[in-house]
Amino acid sequence: MKLLHLDSSALGEYSATREIGHAIVQELKKHGPLDVTYRDLHTDPIPHFVKHLDSLSAEAQVDERILQQFEETDVFVLGAPMYNLSIPTTLKAWIDRILIAGRTFRYTENGPQGLVSGKKVIIVSARGSAYGDQFPMDHQESYLKDIFNFLGVQDVFIVRAEGMAFPTRSQSISQTINSIPEMFAIPAQN
Ligand SMILES: Cc1cc2nc3c(=O)[nH]c(=O)nc-3n(C[C@H](O)[C@H](O)[C@H](O)COP(=O)(O)O)c2cc1C
């Protein structure tokens, strides 16, 4: 099973999504062998998308490697803090490489159609304030869900820590981390 773990927080060691994402990966490793690839998109960013006419150019080859890595991955753990109601641009730069018409989705007369299946996406969400599930201005979790649903991936699971700007920040992070084993519990076999 191949797992791709991406972080996009700019806050280094102080990041909630980093801490929680790493705890999730540690938990998943208990469930069976995992081939984990990690990339910190903040310290090792993907450049903004540029159109290249030459498929042999260095940029085109980087794009192809990112896309192939996406296609080969079974499980994604994506550290996705809320930045100005949305996601960090470093994570958006990765998304711009994986939504490729003809590869991961296609345009049809009946609208776009996702071409991706059999993948699981775990979104690690952190927010300075506390909004819950129904925040009409959420362009972070709902955007990421839409992106993966658009590609055909329905198995999108959100792990959320809120109130990161409140004095209760560390309790909120600990609470989220403590609930990880239960969230990812393997269903009992009969
Ligand atoms: C550039 C920037 C923009 C932010 N925008 C929002 C926001 O729109 N709403 C919010 O609730 N918190 C916002 N925050 C707070 C972060 O969501 C919060 O600090 C969260 O813990 C970030 O995740 P991290 O700890 O993994 O870095 C913002 C933080 C930064 C650095």
Automatic annotation (TrEMBL):
Keyword list, A-Z: Flavoprotein, FMN, NAD, Oxidoreductase
Group of enzyme by EC: oxidoreductase
SUPFAM superfamilies registered for this protein in UniProt: Flavoproteins (SSF52218)
Cofactor stoichiometry and binding remark: Binds 1 FMN per subunit.
Residues noted as binding FMN in the record, renumbered to the chain: 9, 82-85
Domain called Flavodoxin-like fold: residue spans: 1-178
EC number from the UniProt entry: 1.6.5.-, 1.7.1.17
Cofactor or coenzyme needed: FMN
Catalyzed reactions: N,N-dimethyl-1,4-phenylenediamine + anthranilate + 2 NAD(+) = 2-(4-dimethylaminophenyl)diazenylbenzoate + 2 NADH + 2 H(+); 2 a quinone + NADH + H(+) = 2 a 1,4-benzosemiquinone + NAD(+)
Keyword Flavoprotein: yes
Domain of life: Bacteria
InterPro entries, sorted: Flavodoxin_fold, Flavoprotein-like_sf, FMN-dep_NADH:Q_OxRdtase_AzoR1, NADH:quinone_OxRdtase_FMN_depd
GO terms for MF: electron transfer activity; FMN binding; oxidoreductase activity, acting on NAD(P)H as acceptor; oxidoreductase activity, acting on NAD(P)H, quinone or similar compound as acceptor
Family, as annotated: Belongs to the azoreductase type 1 family.
Purpose: Also exhibits azoreductase activity. Catalyzes the reductive cleavage of the azo bond in aromatic azo compounds to the corresponding amines. Quinone reductase that provides resistance to thiol-specific stress caused by electrophilic quinones.
The protein's assembly and partners: Homodimer.
This protein's name: FMN dependent NADH:quinone oxidoreductase
Source organism (scientific name): Acinetobacter halotolerans
The organism's taxonomic lineage, starting at the top: Bacteria, Pseudomonadati, Pseudomonadota, Gammaproteobacteria, Moraxellales
